[in-house]
Specification:
Length: about 190
Amino acid sequence: MFDSQTGFKEALENKATFPEDKEESFDVLLEWVHMDNVREWGGKSDIFALYALGDKLCLPDFQDTVIDRIRTYHRENKKLQTFKGIGAEYNAAPPGSGLRLYLLRSILYSLKLKEMIEGGDSKGDFGFKVDDLEEALLESEDLRKDFLRGVRGYVISRLDLKNPSQGDDCEYHCHDREGPCSREKRSFLTS
Ligand SMILES: [Zn+2]
């Protein structure tokens, strides 16, 4: 399983441990291997741990399936990623990943929503509080920098901010923009 020449503990013991990953994450991963599907997701943050697990195990196709699941959930339920806890989620997502891009664009898009409120309690399902965003920006240095770059980019380009749950899936996938899509590869393998 591992090259013992590397001297890593995993190689010497020929096993790896993932103490931060829940058993259920591996169940979902096995289901994906056999059925090319990531089970229904009810908006729980565990879906972000799945994405990180895929990165750890070098499974970009799995990561693409996870980000597709997140965006589909938001799109079909007319929801957006809320600000609560988004700093920790950004820190846990791999740098340069489609998940980070999605979280960042979700924040930028939310800035123009009427549901975004200054302090106080959020109403209903909406969690777009300035206080929560401030907390997230304080929690994640990477998010803070990317957010400022993103705001600057939109100010300079004057582009209209689009809902990130809509549009081209491949913008958030791990493969090269010119390369074949992981979803096409999977459907070829399972057909
Ligand atoms: Zn793709």
